[in-house]
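pls read this stuff:
=====
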Amino acid sequence: MTNEKILIVEDELLIARDLSQKLKGIGYQIVAIVSSGQAALDVIDKNPPDLVLMDIVIKGDRDGIDTTQVINEKFGIPVIYITAYADDATLDRAEKSGAYGYILKPFNDRELHASIKLALHKAQKYKALEYQSTRDALTTLYNRHYFQEALYQERLKAERQSSCLSLLMLDIDFFKRFNDTFGHDAGDYVLREVGALLKRLVRASDIVCRYGGEEMLILIPNCDEIQAEVIANHVRAECQALDPIYQDRHLGQITVSIGVATFPKHARTETALLKSADDALYRAKMEGRNRVLVALELID
């Protein structure tokens, strides 16, 4: 028996109900049965399934192929087409949409089950590879390469929406003493603890990255410099409250210095935003560490 959740997108109700009963008999959970692309996207947004079975001809402005493209780009959920249409033009569009399979009606139960299992396996394997390529191995935070692309995309979005985008650059104060006093394994433990804390403190829409060494970044969409400074001071206080114990040894207090910069007030490009946050971080360290400083306002 399986526990995977499936969304059925099919505008012929009798077919959809029959399909639902077959899948429940195998052990799958049915999230919903919908008949249009927009309804499918609404369901996925609120209760994402593990897989979508998508008819190509459905109700609404979007057909199944257009809907699949949106699902693939926005949610990354595997889709299998179930359709009676097998002409060359339809097949060509389907192949380019990012779907994980294509089953022609009428299909048998064995073929359906095998296609679902294969699609789920491929999706899990892809997610594992994607995770490895975007994460820092030590802290499991996003890595520098992923962050650079995310920063570019978020800056473009902020520009389109005329909204703010804040960047926090954090450095663990006197990090070298953890390595020198307790060993590099203890230093790694401190990095993991701070990384885990940052993940707990941020929103789902925020992006936390290990930028290099003991430097970490937090990218906060829809956040101005006033809000960002409040968040940064909260992060600083929470880091200071940590009591790291490694192999029954108290490692001592962790303090951090944080530089804050906001698009477009302090910078108008990704490179400039990083530099502004870095400059603010440098000033914070020069002024005694364990503090937050905001970047200097951009002068036109």
Notes: The two ends are 64 Å apart (CA to CA). The mean pLDDT is 93. The first helix runs from residue 13 to 26.
